[in-house]
Amino acid sequence: MKIELLGGCTKEELEGRIQRVAAAGKLSRFPGNVFEVLDSCDDFEKNLKLVKRIINMGHKSIIEHDYLVFALCDVTPIVEQTIIGNRLTSFTIKSRREVDFRTAGYYTPSFRNREGEVHPNSANLTKKYQEHMQYLFNTYGDIEEMGINKEDARFILPYCFYSNIIMGIDARGLEKMVLSFKYGRLSRIQELKELGNILYDIIQKYVPYLVDGLEKQEVNDSNPFAYLETETTRPEIKILDKPKLIAYTPNADDVVLESMVMYHYQCSKEEAKELLQQMQAKDPDAKQKLMDNILHKEERRELEQVSFTFQIPISLSILTHLTRHRMHALLVPEFVPMWDMKNYITPEAVKAKCNDKFQEAIRKNQEVYQEFIQAGVKEEDLIYFYVGAQMCNVITTMNARNTQWICRLRCCNKAQWQIRNIAKEMAKQVKEVAPLIGEGLGATCMTDRYCGEGKECCGLINALLEADKKQGK
């Protein structure tokens, strides 16, 4: 693992960053315009002292103005999935749909026993693990050579493979991340603890106002589910066969339309409802026309007044396709306790061309995993046996605007097949309970007669436009 802060590291850059944060802290209580306040913050030591004093008072919004960009080299998808879970983090990740990962390399944990000490058989376990992981990487390569594209071959990649990420995060998010990785429950995972320590070392040099607060922290890796687990028996993990709408705003179409009238006319809900009834009396299609305007306007804030909650079955290979849509409330199960390794998906293309090889690799992976369990290896060191095909159920709540955005991108024929199926099913189920909103859910070629793929367009937009032309639209 290699982590570097990109920029902001020279003496001048560091002083400039601290000056901006200090000015943000000073602005609300000092006379003068913003430029005068900036000019007054011309002493680095005084600026640093001011920033520390303000954040120690709990006013941490000022450090959101200090934005840092990191290069993360040779980190696994465990890191990737975890940092993406910090929704205000920006990130760019090497694509498994486009890049061959057979020589990417992989992470080997220092195997510990269940008490967290070095396992007495650590050397043999390491040898066994590395031989097995190389076997899975070889299988990935064999599957590609049998004519399977990268996006389907990756379902056999173990979650120890190395990836590379560019991550942008403000200082407040960075502090939260380090607290979690270095001192929180996630610190039980060696790789995340290592990342937390490296980020802390960078903070000591380049984000000095965070040091005092972090130095005062103590490890708190207690299990937040302890009460639940003592009072219940863990049920068998059952993966859904498709997304399921489990909660939603009742009468969502009417709520959206009424909110449009309410905020535009500054009237009450009752008045808005009456006005809509009057419009319908004149024009039976009034609601549909109003909703169409909302679905295609720039802001679409009315759509944010209603929400839909889904439980979604998804593979680890595709999870980032959902988590990267950051403005929805996503609950992904923790990597530990270990999921049921028997829950996995096989791509149809793999079934058709090399199913036996794929299933043998899955079987072998489960077998070696069981050997490590029986050897008493700590669960946090076993998470690298997950493969991309591993399935889990996630829960998310999103407003109608988020739902529309996700469907615009993920219902597209160019989207990966699993996330496309998920998005189409979500759109279908929303349409059943909110038909007017549902009309605006789908790929942009279907809803807006627009395609942003350029030369890589699948061609459907041309067929749709031609059909519209024949119908006189």
Fold blueprint:
Elements: E1 2-5, H1 11-27, H2 34-40, H3 44-56, E2 67-75, H4 77-84, E3 90-93, H5 122-145, H6 150-153, E4 163-170, H7 171-183, H8 190-206, H9 211-215, H10 226-231, E5 244-248, H11 252-265, H12 269-282, H13 286-296, E6 307-315, H14 316-323, E7 329-331, H15 348-374, E8 391-399, H16 400-410, H17 417-433, H18 435-438, H19 444-447, H20 460-470
Antiparallel strand pairs: 1-2, 2-4, 3-4, 5-6, 6-8, 7-8
Helix pairs in contact: 1-2, 1-3, 5-15, 7-8, 11-12, 11-13, 16-17
CA gyration radius, whole angstroms: 26 Å
Q: Total number of helical segments?
A: 20
The level of helicity is: 40-55%
Q: How many individual β-strands? A: 8
Strands of the biggest beta sheet: in what spatial order?
Answer: 1-2-4-3
β-sheet strand percentage: 5-15%
Task: Give the biggest sheet.
Answer: 4 strands, antiparallel
**Overall 3D shape:** globular
Catalogue the unreliable spans: none
Distance between the termini: 57 Å
What string gives the helices and strands in order?
EHHHEHEHHEHHHHEHHHEHEHEHHHHH
Query: Which secondary-structure class do the elements indicate?
Result: alpha+beta
**Mean of pLDDT:** 95
